[in-house]
Design a protein that fits this description.
Malate_DH_type3; 320 residues; Rossmann fold; L-2-Hydroxyisocaproate Dehydrogenase, Chain A, domain 2; alpha/beta; 43% helix; six-stranded parallel beta sheet
């Protein structure tokens, strides 16, 4: 069986980390693409030179030509501009929308069968635009945010309770922004919901609220520290987990920005929900029941994503 092909559009901080992780996990041959000539080629050569030490056989190449994406099985998109301190993800909208138009056309022409994972921010609006620009089926285009947001949530809980991250499951719904909805009721430590953890007195309500807020601000905290860019290790790892679930038909249930066609009462918008990811792409959206406070927070998050989508339609009327 021929090796799978993974194309990475954008070879910056996240793109390079994606390539390294995909190689280490032997997911397939890797093509790094960027508009800046030399960067994808240089990173491909550097990562290839780690292969003899690590013992992987993946072919890793760099290019600035869309035709080299031909017949990719998975495309992960990080092309665009990241945040600088003081910027919100939404500030990136206009620049990155133009990038999605070019990338969408390239995917449509050379890799129309690929499973496409978008990481570029503002995530929910960019994955929506990328699906429209590419014309690929909505089940084939998904956005990476929930795995990252949930992983941040898990990290903070594990750190606070001094327990293994392996025994924690956390769920974050909604858009990838200040309105994201970390769900304490559906997040568990060894099966015990966080709400019960508070009742048991293992963690105070104030501490849990502070962790929820820190999860929401997780990206901004890192931007503030790095000053020259945004997070890249955890975003790359999160997208690789999604790619792996698709390539190996694992059917993992992962939170991701998926196209809603009536689920959760939402139509025509991408927003973070639990999704089964397998060989069919985004195979099934899981509709969990929300209490009134959770529903209110989710609705607010959806409204904020819809606002960004409206802004996209004004900038690029052909998306309307
Ligand atoms: N086509 C292809 N690549 C492009 C294009 C384009 N039209 N425009 C920009 N790029 C490339 C840049 O040359 C750069 O190498 O995208 C890459 C982005 O890399 P970084 O600036 O290092 O950004 P990164 O940290 O990888 O984040 C990428 O993901 O999480 C989001 O907010 C983040 O939107 C940002 C994206």
């Amino acid at each position: 069986m021929a090796r799978k092909k993974i194309a990475l559009i954008g070879s910056g901080q996240i793109g390079g980390t994606l390539a390294h992780l995909a190689a280490l996990k032997d997911l397939g041959d890797i093509v790094l693409f960027d508009i800046v000539d030399g960067v994808p080629q240089g990173k491909a050569l550097d990562i290839s030179q780690s292969a003899p030490v690590e013992g992987y056989d993946a072919k890793i190449s760099g290019t600035s030509k869309y035709e080299d994406l031909k017949d990719a099985d998975v495309v992960i998109v990080t092309a665009g501009v990241p945040r600088k301190p003081g910027m919100s993800r939404d500030d990136l909208l206009e620049i990155n929308l133009k990038v999605m138009e070019q990338v969408g056309a390239g995917i449509a022409k050379y890799a129309p069968k690929a499973f496409v994972i978008c990481i570029t921010n503002p995530l929910d609006a960019m994955v929506w635009a990328l699906q429209k620009f590419s014309g690929l089926p909505t089940s084939q285009v998904i956005g990476m945010a929930g795995v990252l947001d949930s992983s941040r949530f898990v990290h903070f809980i594990a750190d606070e309770l001094n327990v293994s991250v392996e025994d924690i499951n956390a769920f974050v719904l909604g858009g990838h922004g200040d309105t994201m909805v970390p769900l304490a009721r559906y997040s568990t430590v060894a099966g015990i919901p966080l709400t019960d953890i508070v009742k048991m007195g293992w963690m105070s309500k104030e501490k849990l609220d502070a962790i929820i807020q820190r999860t929401r601000d997780g990206g901004a905290e890192i931007v503030g520290l790095l000053k020259t860019g945004s997070a890249f290790y955890a975003p790359a790892t999160s997208a690789i987990a999604m790619a792996e679930s698709y390539l190996k038909d694992k059917k993992r249930v992962l939170p991701a920005a998926a196209y809603l066609d009536g689920q959760y009462g939402v139509k025509g918008t991408y927003v973070g929900v639990p999704v089964v990811i397998g060989a069919g792409g985004a195979e099934k959206i899981i509709e969990i029941s929300l209490n009134s406070a959770e529903q209110k927070a989710f609705d607010k998050s959806v409204a904020s994503v819809e606002g960004l989508i409206e802004a996209c339609k004004k900038i690029a009327p052909k998306l309307a």
